[in-house]
Amino acid sequence: MGKLNLNRVSMPKQEPEERARNFDEVALGYSKEQAMEEASRCIQCKKAKCIEGCPVNVRIPEFILALRDGDMEDAVEKLKDKNALPGICGRVCPQETQCEERCTLGKKGAPVAIGRLERFVADWERAQGKAASKPDVDPTGKKVAIIGAGPAGLTVAADLAKLGHEVTMFEALHVAGGVLMYGIPEFRLPKAIVQGEVNYVKSLGVDLKLDAVVGKISSLQELFDQGYEAMFLGTGAGLPMFMRIEGENLKGIYSANEYLTRINLMKAYMFPEYDTPLQVGRKVAVVGGGNVAMDSARCSLRFGAEKVYIVYRRSREEMPARLEEVENAEEEGVIFKLLTNPLRYFGNEQGYVTHMECIEMELGEPDDSGRRRPVPKEGSEFIMEIDTVVIAIGNRPNPLIPATTPDLETTRWGTVVAEEETGLTTMKGIYAGGDIVTGAATVISAMGAGRRAAAAMHEFLMSK
Q: Are residues 365 and 427 in the same domain?
């Protein structure tokens, strides 16, 4: 074996001053030569700890070996054996804290760029334009309903269809994909990639019903009455949280949900082809420190804001956003006001927000999340001039299904109570996973919950 290459191949991306004014994808992806070079860094560990770090247990060394050997079709097969959405995961999953964190090379240098290689393989398959064939499997005769066509629901649907079950997905919106469509901007996750992955799931024999709001068109019990024998709840967390401070109802203050839904799902980023109204001022403050906050801030720049602030009550080290997204935002010109917390908002006679009073914070002892608790610094209040605010401090599940399903137990945060290993709720035959159980989390964690639930549902169905 030759000398180990401890330096990963850099991924090309648009220059900051160029990309901050367009919605084209920032990361441009590896060329074939770059992908081959990066794949050759993998040392094919006998005990592949990278797989342990993957919530859906992708056969990582196997797909990388096939890529290195130039057998792209085998690489696709190995990758999609465990992951129905690789083009999405290769772009938005936090590999740095999952599979790549376990990579043996990371002990001495940079871990293998597993996510970038996953993206390359998925994009290669998409470029071939081949339609996937329905799996050759005997039908079980069992009908399953999936409520919500986001990452968790799509994963469950794909796994159960491959096992021969008759799967129907009910999606409340006019397009499938959930948060992948309404929450993540085009420059980070192109919508064509999402719809390509949705079409793959449909090609497995899954029936997709759009504009179908379960809890309105049918209750869960009525779905059972229609012949469905098991259900999966994957409706996500689409109910925005607010700080409940003075002035928060002024015009020009958005929830991140509304802001990003207007931009992404309602295609404000394609103005004037799509005439979706979105008021973005000259000085924008985004409250929060997660990926949603970064997405909102970077979108604001692309809509022409002169100054965009991230206002976050903890320090940079505690930010839940991916390091890559924080760096991209900084490169593009987003200004970080850390250890800062809003107290109240002021508006003009027309009811539009004009200023925000903040207070400086300092870090105390760790709280329940393990992060140090922010504590106000007495006498440090100050005023910021702003004309647009985006609140990106988290979301809760929509209460519609629990409200129409009395036997479904929920927590005081509105999340559905479900077993971690199986996704089983307090109702027989009903499983749940993703943000409806955990609250807002990552795409890949939702997919991992979906895989575990699909296995449990299959066992339940076949034992009936």
A: no
Residue 72: domain span = 16-128
Report yes or no on 456 lying in a domain.
yes
* Backbone CA torsion sign across 17, 97, 51, 442: negative
Domain shared by 258 and 389, yes or no: yes
The reply to whether 234 and 324 lie within a common domain is no
Identify whether 208 is part of a domain: yes
pLDDT at 3: 66
Q: What is the pLDDT of residues 30-84, one digit of tens each?
A: 999 999 999 999 999 999 999 999 999 999 999 999 999 999 999 999 999 999 9
Determine phi and psi for 179, rounding to 5 degrees.
-60, -25
Domain assignment present for residue 138? The answer is no
Q: How far apart are CA 312 and CA 374, in angstroms?
A: 10
Same structural domain for residues 198 and 226?
yes
Q: What is the dihedral of CA 15, 19, 20, 24, to 10 degrees?
A: -160
CATH number at 443 reads 3.50.50.60
pLDDT digits (tens, 9 = 90+) for 224-269: 999 999 999 999 998 999 999 999 999 999 999 999 999 999 999 9
CA pair distance 119, 12, nearest whole angstrom: 13
Q: Is the pLDDT of residue 216 over 60?
A: yes
Mean of pLDDT over the chain: 95
Residue 144, beta-bridge partner list: 167, 230
- pLDDT tens digits for range 185-206: 999 999 999 999 999 999 999 9
The answer to whether residues 359 and 336 touch, using CB atoms and an 8 Å cutoff, is no
Count: domains in the chain: 3
Last-in-domain residue among 374, 393, 412: 393
Residue 121 pLDDT: 97
Backbone angles phi and psi of 8, in degrees to 5: -75, 155
How far is residue 214's CA from residue 218's CA, in Å, rounded to a whole number? 5
pTM above 0.85, yes or no: yes
Determine contact, residues 57/81, Cβ cutoff 8 Å: no
> What is the distance between the alpha carbons of residues 206 and 218, in angstroms, rounded to a whole number?
19
Q: Tell me which of 344, 363, 393 is where a domain ends.
A: 393
| Burial track 157-183 (b if 16+ CB lie within 10 A, e otherwise) | bbbbbbbbbbbbbbbbbebbbbbbbbb
